[in-house]
């Protein structure tokens, strides 16, 4: 297990082990993250296929899709897999499997997918990445099947602090590098329109239903220092894995509809989302969280 807060390098270390393997699979909580690892592996010369609920792509060689990849000896290369957690491959045997955001095993709606992957995936090594809060449950699960768990703990690589001032929806005080987090698509576009009208700064937009290619473009627009897009308005989709040059995370609300009721965000959720600010070696040395 690789456990720690956001921006601690836990997933980085697990992916490095995946890069070394001859066969492997990455199980992602989001389509966009699955797409990122698919692109990363293929760019490194390690053939990798993408499998999500909405997309399936073959490996690429020099940017060109290849149904079959051959090595220098003319032998067929078995590609790695980057997939969303729900599309995990249980038929193949892998050298290394990486299951990201393992704390989601406790999620009421999607936890089944992490449980099934944890117990069903065939791999010599399984690397789990996530929060410290998931460790006791994972240890109990593995103890019940007489397996052991090695836990590696990581500390955050940059500072994160809360602000003593709130914007209170006064969008004139929005600054370059800010990310405003809202929990509905309607609210996201409403805030985007208000900020652009009041400040003149363009806003990139990221939310869960946005296709991965579009999300990547929006993230690149926000990250590019030469772009006109200086502010990001997003859903909590930014809380998992995206490398964004966020200086300050601003919560429009600390309550979210969970499918049945509007509930307060948990401390874990606030840390996960707010911790995207101040990413190590990405943009800012210190991240700020406010409302």
Automatic annotation (TrEMBL):
Top EC class of this enzyme: hydrolase
Gene Ontology CC annotation, any one: mitochondrial degradosome
Residues covered by the Helicase C-terminal domain: 166-291
Recorded catalytic activity of this chain's protein: ATP + H2O = ADP + phosphate + H(+)
EC numbers for this chain: 3.6.4.13
GO term, biological process aspect, one: mitochondrial RNA 3'-end processing
Localization (cell): Mitochondrion
Pfam families: DEXQc_Suv3, Helicase_C
InterPro entries: DEXQc_SUV3 (IPR055206), Helicase_C-like (IPR001650), P-loop_NTPase (IPR027417), RNA-DNA_Helicase (IPR050699), Suv3_DEXQc (IPR044774)
Keyword entries, A-Z: ATP-binding, Helicase, Hydrolase, Mitochondrion, Nucleotide-binding, Transit peptide
GO terms for MF: ATP binding; hydrolase activity; RNA helicase activity
Gene3D superfamilies hit by this protein: P-loop containing nucleotide triphosphate hydrolases
Protein name: RNA helicase
